[in-house]
Amino acid sequence: MTADTSLAALGFALVASLTPGPNNVMLLASGVNFGFRRTIPHMLGIAIGFSVLLVAVGAGLGALLAAFPALHLALKVAGGAYLLYLAWKIGTARTLSTAGPNGERPMTLLQAAAFQWVNPKAWVFAITIVALYADPLQPVASIAVVVAVCLIASATSVSTWAGFGLMLRQFLSDPVRLKWFNIAMGVLLALTLIPLLM
Questions:
Q1: pTM of the predicted model, to two decimals?
Q2: Is the distance from CB of 132 to CB of 12 less than 8 angstroms?
């Protein structure tokens, strides 16, 4: 992959990573509700889970899903159901805490990594960037570059969104403001399902 192609891939990855989607909405909410430091495992889980997804797509998993529409539909249904569950959990959170009275905790590294496999935006992003920038004549090297580019974009995106949450934490320490913020984040997370339904 040439330097120009790598830079183009990085630009694409930054735009795709920074735009609102399920991961970013959850990171913003986690930054507010749990702080930046306690959101780090969630951020690392996104980066690791998405990197593994990219490798799988590059190895042909995207083509497998295209060949078996029922498998693709099952993935969409499972992802949509889990996304709605997460939207409900965020929308009903009511405390800024390390562990709320209802046992609220930030997403773990493994949960965030696993979520990438049912995240509709992650799938679209992975399939698109592999199709656009991976070189079929050099699959291993080009996928490695795509993964590296996406890790740079992911580090930028996840720290930005969790950081926004941290900046809002003091303002949202008022229980009424926090309640409405979490409801809004839950609704926004649920709305990220709209592209999945179309």
A1: 0.82
A2: yes
